[in-house]
Amino acid sequence: MLFKCYFLILMFCGLLTDLIKCQTLEVVTDNELLDLCRSENQVVALFTLKDCEKCKKYEETLTQIREELVDSLNAWVVKVEGSNLVHIYNPAKEPALVMFRHGVPLLIPESEAVNDEFLIDMLLNNRDPIVKELNDNSFEHLTQASTGATTGDWFIKFYSSDSIECQRLQARWETVGAKLKNRVNVARINRYIGGSITARRFSISQSPTFILLRRGVMYTYTSSDYTIESFLKFVEEDYKFTVKGQVPQPKSTFDDFVHMCFDVLRENPLAWKLGLTVLSVILLCLAALKKTSKSSEYKSKKKSTKSSSKKIK
């Protein structure tokens, strides 16, 4: 009898432990999170702080749907407290809910993060990265920009790998893509690696730069507000109040080469100053050589004239 009671107590403790685990999120460190993102296809991470009421609301909502995420997506659902990584995904910092799909982050807006129905819908419908990666070879074929964009509207971000701002925008840009899904194509193109010809075609000189291609017309996003809400408002309404631009035609090889040379000189002022200095030195040397040559020729002629005069005498 005593043995049976002991056995029942152990079973109860085990069930209680499992229940507690189901109602709490596993806490991981920054390094553990990075390892998960590299090894797992789906990772949902909640960035929180201790003694944060808003963070608790996020955690309660995520905990409610944790089992469904595990069953439907085979996802890891974890929590990171006081992370040094949060600013990469959300400029507002904690709380931040981020879903990593094959390592690509998607920032969940607050309206979805605190509503279990909206949250599960957002996560299940965006299990794969949505932003399209363009390059010089695929840009015109996919966007058909110069022929009227019959493939639909395109909201494109020109970025560069060395820009910290561009790196921090990735999670928000994925969210923009998720919000505009099936309405507007959201894409990005590296203006240095693989997309330099296209960047020169559109006269892109800084990272990030955003353009909207809509019905054969180009609109440039000029605001410094890089929030998800601002991007969405621009695509849905504010583009109407932006100056319309003509979509530039693809450049010829020669025109692109000339543009590339100007870009190199503009972005590397020391290069053209050094080049100008070297050119000046070369011209001075040539001028000095020419002067020396003329002087030698004059002396030679003078000697020849004197010699002729002596012979005549």
Automatic annotation (TrEMBL):
Residues 132-232 form the Thioredoxin domain. Keywords: Membrane, Signal, Transmembrane, Transmembrane helix. Residues 293-313 are annotated as: Disordered. It comes from the Eukaryota. The keyword Cell division does not apply. Pfam families: Thioredoxin. InterPro entries: Thioredoxin-like_sf (IPR036249), Thioredoxin_domain (IPR013766). Residues 1-22 form the signal peptide. The chain crosses the membrane at residues 270-289. Residues 300-313 have a biased composition (Basic residues). This is Thioredoxin domain-containing protein.
